[in-house]
């Protein structure tokens, strides 16, 4: 079930329209039409993002020289499917699934819901003894903690957990981050053809008055991470200066990116993966990785009791932390949790690695310390009720 979203008005009630919308109408039509091509399947798009690796199944599953599953596990997984519940974006998950299936031969059935709705469904099914999911991907580590306490996530250790510890990533008994979500900036390249915005302070530049788009902090953990980053790097006054821009506040990242592509806004804070996907599909969007860096949050992944008994789900978890899986999510505009995979390009962009000083992660401890107060502050600054 897709997330239901709205296009709220700015605090002044004004909507942008007219000339800017017409300016990029043709590009928006291109984005809308691109899904119909026979050469635009998820598998084909995945191959365009990153060249397929070498796969060896002579003794289990080995991809680009890294052993993903031994023969017994891989043989047991063949012919089985993985049921995946995910709070990540559907397009990104479709690409990841297509790549996983192409490399392993294992099919995946996806149910995609926003994090809070997914948590409600999963906890309800688990409580009734009817949980269908083998693997669950979330966007908020606080929910992952609840899942572990409820027995919805169960202990599972991949062959690559030592790589997590070496990278300083979360190593929880019941879940691990499959990748990091990143928030950065973007602008409409059909509108800003000269002297385009190039840093966080541009979000507060009066020349972009009425052109700024942001996503409500109540949308999910990635926005809490962005707000904490902005406060720590630029001070609380930065929120005041953004609010003075009369920004348009969106209830989801996907609707914000769509509005940016149509020219209803011309500059925005964005989920890097969402905006990169739109640019890849032809939208007039350019991303900006400011000098100060980007905000990041964990994307928890864990096996359910059903998944722990499913060899195919175990292969999916292993693959997710393999070099092949990590490089592929990096090519989509996420940041790999493993720091030993080397630089990963997302098209023309290279995001800071997880061990870079320009990578600003809000982990579970940071959420516990700051998220509630930051949300109250953000809602007050932007006069937001929701």
Automatic annotation (TrEMBL):
<protein>
    <submittedName>
        <fullName>Extracellular solute-binding protein</fullName>
    </submittedName>
</protein>
<dbReference type="InterPro" id="IPR006059">
    <property type="entry name" value="SBP"/>
</dbReference>
<dbReference type="Pfam" id="PF13416">
    <property type="entry name" value="SBP_bac_8"/>
</dbReference>
<feature type="signal peptide">
    <location>
        <begin position="1"/>
        <end position="33"/>
    </location>
</feature>
<keyword id="KW-0732">Signal</keyword>
């Amino acid at each position: 079930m897709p997330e239901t979203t709205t296009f709220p008005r700015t605090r002044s009630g004004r909507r942008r329209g007219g000339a800017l919308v017409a300016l990029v109408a043709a590009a928006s039509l291109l984005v809308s039409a691109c899904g119909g091509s026979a050469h635009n399947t998820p598998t084909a798009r995945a191959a365009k993002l990153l060249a397929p690796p070498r796969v060896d199944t002579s003794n289990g599953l080995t991809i680009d020289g890294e052993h993903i599953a031994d023969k017994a596990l891989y043989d047991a997984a063949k012919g089985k499917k993985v049921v995946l519940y995910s709070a990540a974006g559907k397009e990104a998950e479709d690409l990841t699934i297509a790549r996983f299936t192409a490399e392993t031969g294992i099919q995946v059935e996806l149910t995609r819901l926003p994090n809070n709705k997914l948590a409600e469904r999963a906890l309800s099914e688990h409580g009734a003894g009817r949980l269908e999911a083998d693997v669950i991907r979330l966007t908020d580590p606080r929910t992952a903690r609840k899942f572990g306490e409820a027995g919805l996530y169960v202990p599972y250790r991949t062959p690559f957990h030592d790589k997590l510890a070496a990278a300083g990533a979360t190593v929880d008994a019941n879940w691990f981050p499959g990748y990091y979500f990143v928030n950065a900036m973007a602008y409409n390249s059909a509108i800003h053809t000269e002297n385009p915005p190039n840093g966080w302070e541009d979000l507060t530049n009066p020349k972009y008055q009425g052109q700024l788009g942001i996503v409500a902090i109540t949308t999910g953990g990635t926005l809490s991470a962005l707000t904490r980053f902005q406060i720590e790097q630029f001070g609380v006054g930065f929120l005041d200066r953004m609010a003075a821009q009369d920004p348009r506040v969106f209830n989801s990242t996907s609707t914000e990116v769509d509005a940016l592509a149509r020219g209803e806004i011309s500059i925005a804070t964005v989920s890097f993966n969402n905006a990169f996907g739109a640019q890849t599909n032809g939208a007039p969007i350019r991303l900006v990785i400011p000098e100060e860096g980007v905000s990041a949050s964990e994307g928890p992944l864990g096996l359910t009791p059903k998944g722990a008994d499913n060899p195919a789900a175990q292969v999916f978890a292993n693959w997710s932390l393999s070099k092949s899986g990590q490089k592929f999510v990096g090519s989509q505009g996420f940041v790999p949790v493993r720091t030993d995979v080397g630089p990963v390009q997302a098209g023309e962009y290279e995001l800071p690695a997880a061990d870079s000083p320009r990578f600003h992660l809000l982990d579970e401890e940071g959420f516990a310390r700051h998220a509630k107060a930051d949300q109250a502050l953000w809602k007050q600054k932007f006069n937001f009720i929701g």
